[in-house]
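Entry — protein

Goal — fold tokens:
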Amino acid sequence: MKKNKRQGIKDKIVGKLSVNQRGFGFVAPEDGGSDIFIDAQNLGGAWNGDRVKVRLTDIYNGRREGRVVEVLERAKDIFVGTLTQINNKNFVKPDDKRIAGEIVVTKLNKHFPAKTKVVVKIISWQPLRGEVIEVLGKENSPGVEIRGILRSHGIEENFPPEVQAEASRIELEPSAEEISCRRDRRNLKIVTIDGEDAKDLDDGVYAGEINGEFFLGVYIADVSWYVRPHTALDREAFNRGTSIYPVDRVVPMLPTELSNGICSLNAGVDRLAMACEMKIDSSGKVVDYKIFPTVIHIFRRLSYTQVNKFLDGDRELADCAENLNALKKIHDLRKKIRAERGAIDFDLPEMKIILNEAGKPIEITKRIQTVAESIIEECMLLANETVAEHTLRKKIPSLYRVHELPSPDKVLTLNNLLAHFSLHIATSKNRDLEPRDFQKILSKVKGLPVEKIITSYALRTMQQARYSPENLGHFGLAAKFYTHFTSPIRRYPDLIVHRMLRASFEGKKLSDKNLEEISRQSSERERRAIDIEREALDLKAVEFMQRFVGQNFDGVIDSVTNFGFFVELENGVDGLVRVAELGDDYYTFVEREFALIGNRTGKSFHIGDNVRVKLSAASTKLRQLSFELIDDVANRDLIAKI
């Protein structure tokens, strides 16, 4: 029953619009409160991401509904789409399926081949018109689709001329004058440990053991020495916020003269660095530390593969044995400490897509973290915590990486899911939720068939980590102090932390008035990079699966909605079985049960159910796989009884 409650509710609310691919949307109010549902016919010309003013119309079963009465700010005016030319008229259909209709293109007097991808800038919203500002190439040609994803998010790969000019003037090797002003650590056998294809090497490590205690030095490229405030390089780094890693390329935050050159800790050359040297006792606790600018000379560049072989008994790296053995012991101690304080271990394998030289996907594998990667991760985590505590105690203005408590509503939803597996996150009115509450659940399902599903949902329950000038702790890491210090080549917040530290070494205190803006911008740019990388991964996954259309696969239901359920295959890709195609019954989505349940037969499709499906379609345009249900393992007994 519809109930319209006007009293006590603001008539017009301002917020950000998010549009679903099915046409409807939701507005998240800027002043808080529940989202407002916007039917497709009530969007009022607003597009996904726009800042809008909404008039409330109804409240239905507790859900607020409304219509857009004014677009206050457009999210963007650049779009990527496919060009259609008919009878001297030009139209562009946007790739973003959340945008209905077509953009009329003006000032285009040239004929292009069918299915040409272009970038359009909007010149008029009413009527909707635009002009082509870049031709990307023919649809599905090598690299075109990824460039389209980048452009749709406002990413230009090339650097502006003034930025490139500054980069070209950067010194090719550190000056003798600057080296003489720094503590010299070139005598240490510092190594870098990275993937074989890494080019921007921003962290080196050296460790030793003396009488059961340890020395750990983490040496980070001193990007702040080369990228100074108020320069074109700095403005561009702030604008980009982070390097981006789509499947087939790297879009760096800094020009290659810095990212792959003078700021990269390449073996066999002198490099300026920022050091965090720590004394660690036999229990793994940091008992003393020093942070300072230094000069280093990387002894060897090592790969994860080499280090893993060494740890398995290979003697190839005998000249690094003392360092690597100490690093492994520190790693084990720090893993134990973090486990004891309840840090959450989201150990989810990542999907990795292998491309050939033409950029076509030829294999999908699961990338699982190795011991060598875990060693470096523990070193970086410890350096980040140490630097964060240092800046806080010394009252140095800085940026922190913060991760706040999950919302009670999301925890409740997760507990509803866990109940189906006889699990529950213990909560109490007498204390706040703790990371160990989540870790206990993840430990219980370790190695079980439901592990990935529960881990994925637990991860979705978390708040998004973000940057802040205020130290709020990191829930997931169970850390009181945390920052990002270890990757200034590819993350702007790390560069700012270095800059603040440098000022403190010189007895200065930089203004903190811009830290709030830097935090907001950096958090937004990070989310943009994640979206781009996910879209590129989805695109290549669908492209890979196109060769298997018509084939059958075993999978697991990993998500259920009112329009169907998603099935994940063994290789990590997932696709949709639409409820409309389950023709044997009328199915109702029962949200609390995370299930679709047949009204007549009682058949159900729950998260975690094993199913067999046929791949019926693989659309690169939608970046989506479509499945048909072949066999439902979970319902076999029920079907037999019927």
